[in-house]
């Protein structure tokens, strides 16, 4: 069975058993919603390229929409710099270097496509980085060889200097900073985890859908179910995080339906829908499904 057949079998089982995410603003299903995936990839792929070529943290995507155009621009700049540098170095590479470079570069490019289904993050660059690091290394090695031969084109030397600065100097410095950022995010979710440990009935939780209203760090909150498991807490039947805004919301009953809730606060109105995840934009009275529980 060749690689294509294995991929087709995998995709068939993937869809048959209902795996994956659908209808999310963060995770886009390439097969179920190809249009949204392609539109999202137009911005996400350049950001990933910025992390791959220039070591700019793609995780800054989560900082907000105001920084995303700059991240896209940096990624396109990095691609526009790397392609001429590799082309300039290519004739001076050995045949063995060119042979391995072809499949590594192709593999790096193709491996970027599936990870564009979610929000950009440097953690997605493990496989693309195998080919990307080779491209950077070939440019740096070629620049060093040219220096040894006494022939140093200014463009190649300048590009190689930028890559050396980003990959050999700044990248190691970013490791502790990113570690501190993640530790800070974990500290911000600790009060929420303590609240869940105190308020939830562990015996019923595996049969319950947990609805969580906006908390201080919404982007990190989606990892709370996994953090609950690491703390020995049972996993809920579903984890519905209402909204991605930090503004405080106040759930209030609507009408006579005792389970009807409406979130009131700054921003667009939201409601808890029967039989589905929370929705925004008003509509008629709605309620969490049977067996659900709201937590804030």
Keywords:
296 residues, alpha/beta, four-stranded antiparallel β-sheet, three-stranded parallel β-sheet, 8 helices, 7 strands, 9% strand, elongated, disordered C terminus
Description:
By secondary structure, this protein is of the alpha/beta class. It has eight helices and seven strands, in the order ααααααβααββββββ. The chain has helices at 3-16, 34-54, 68-89, 95-115, 128-148, 154-199, 218-221, 224-230, and strands spanning 209-212, 238-241, 249-253, 261-265, 270-271, 279-280, 292-295. A four-stranded antiparallel sheet has the order 3-4-5-6, with no helix packed on it. The protein has a three-stranded parallel sheet with strand order 2-1-7, with no helix packed on it. It is elongated. 22% of the residues are buried. Mean pLDDT is 79; it is low at 267-296.
Continuous helix count: 8
**How far do the termini sit from each other?**
51 Å
| Net shape | elongated
Question: Would you count the extended β strands for me?
Answer: 7
Spatial order of the strands forming the largest sheet: 3-4-5-6
> Which H/E pattern describes the elements?
HHHHHHEHHEEEEEE
Q: What Rg is obtained from the alpha carbons, in whole angstroms?
A: 24 Å
Q: Could you describe the largest sheet, including whether it forms a barrel?
A: 4 strands, antiparallel
Mean pLDDT: 79
Could you tell me the strand content as a percent range? 5-15%
**What structural class results from the helix and strand content?**
alpha/beta
| Poorly predicted regions | 267-296
> What's the assembly state of these chains?
single chain
Helix fraction, binned, reads 40-55%
């Amino acid at each position: 069975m060749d690689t294509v057949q294995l991929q087709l079998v995998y995709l068939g089982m993937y869809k048959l058993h209902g795996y994956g995410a659908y209808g999310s603003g963060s995770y886009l299903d390439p097969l179920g919603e190809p249009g949204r995936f392609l539109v999202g990839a137009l911005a996400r792929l350049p950001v990933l390229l910025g992390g791959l070529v220039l070591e700019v943290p793609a995780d800054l995507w989560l900082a907000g929409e105001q920084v995303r155009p700059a991240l896209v621009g940096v990624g396109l700049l990095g691609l526009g710099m790397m392609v001429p540098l590799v082309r300039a170095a290519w004739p001076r590479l050995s045949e063995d270097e060119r042979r391995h470079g072809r499949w590594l570069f192709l593999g790096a490019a193709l491996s970027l496509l599936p990870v564009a289904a979610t929000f950009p993050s440097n953690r997605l660059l493990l496989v693309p980085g195998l080919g990307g690091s080779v491209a950077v290394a070939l440019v740096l090695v070629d620049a060093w060889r040219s220096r040894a031969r006494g022939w140093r084109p200014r463009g190649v030397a300048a590009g190689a200097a930028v890559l050396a600065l980003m990959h050999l100097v700044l990248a190691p410095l970013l490791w502790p900073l990113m570690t501190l950022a993640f530790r800070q995010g974990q500290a911000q979710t600790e009060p929420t985890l303590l609240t869940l440990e105190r308020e939830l009935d562990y015996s019923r939780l595996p049969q319950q859908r947990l609805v969580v209203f906006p908390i201080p760090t919404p982007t990190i909150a989606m990892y709370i179910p996994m953090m609950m498991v690491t703390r020995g807490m049972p996993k809920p039947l579903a984890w519905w995080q209402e909204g991605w805004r930090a503004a405080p919301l106040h759930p209030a009953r609507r009408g006579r339906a005792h389970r009807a809730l409406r979130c009131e606060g700054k921003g667009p109105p939201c409601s808890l829908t029967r039989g589905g995840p929370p929705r925004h934009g008003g509509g008629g009275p709605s309620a969490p499904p049977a067996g659900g529980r709201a937590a804030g």
